[in-house]
Amino acid sequence: MDLAALDGWMREFARLVAENRDELTRLDSAIGDADHGINMDRGMTAAVSALDAATPAGAAGMFKKVGMTLVSTTGGASGPLYGTLFLRFGTAAGEVGELTAATFATALRAGLDGVVQRGKAELGDKTMVDALAPAVDALDAGLAADTSLGAALAAAQAAADAGRDATIPMLARKGRASYLGERSIGHQDPGATSVALLVTAAATVLGTPGQR
Ligand code: ADP
Ligand code: MG
């Protein structure tokens, strides 16, 4: 996959965030402060503008731009966490013009590791990690089994969606939702929901048969 494809991934994520902005905010109103959709839409709109304004030489520069823009424009916990995800993704990918499926998977895992390091959430804490970790695992498993990138990304998308849904019965142990204790049970986590959109965007844009 080349830089144009990765750029397309970010633009599709921004489009999905905008389309689901009210839903993300509604979910955050149940167990947070009703701003996740607003935060993510503001951040990804700014990230797309930053991509419009720049001509990055490689993936590292491109995702540094996206990550820094999210850190500086997105309020809440999600800004620094998504910022870290993309900064680590870019650093792991390197300043290259083309990524293989294996490099993409390695970079996405580096992004996950960054989110875990920064937010200290474990699986089952009802956070972004509950959608991202299963997606990265499914992507790795798919590529190890020698399926096409498209099939591996489709499996990652299914895993992210299942991980998002699995947050509903969880008790929140990190972030604002954790202040609610038992009352956080029965609500879908907003951050896991936006992560599922990120993985959907990858499957849609990077998983087409022409991509390699
Ligand atoms: P805030 O909670 O500061 O208002 P947002 O509403 O934008 O920020 O984002 C909330 C989401 O951030 C949560 O649904 C959760 O998925 C994620 N989140 C919060 N804290 C953490 C953490 N420590 N680790 C991972 N994800 C987290
Ligand atoms: Mg919030």
TrEMBL record:
State the InterPro entries in the record. DhaK_L_YcgS, DhaL_dom, DhaL_dom_sf, Dihydroxyacetone_Kinase
- Where the record annotates domain DhaL, the positions are 4-204
Q: What SUPFAM superfamilies does this protein map onto?
A: DhaL-like
Give a GO molecular function annotation for the protein: kinase activity
Assigned keywords, A-Z: Kinase, Transferase
Q: Does the keyword Cell cycle apply?
A: no
Q: Which domain of life is it from?
A: Bacteria
Q: What is this protein called?
A: Dihydroxyacetone kinase subunit L
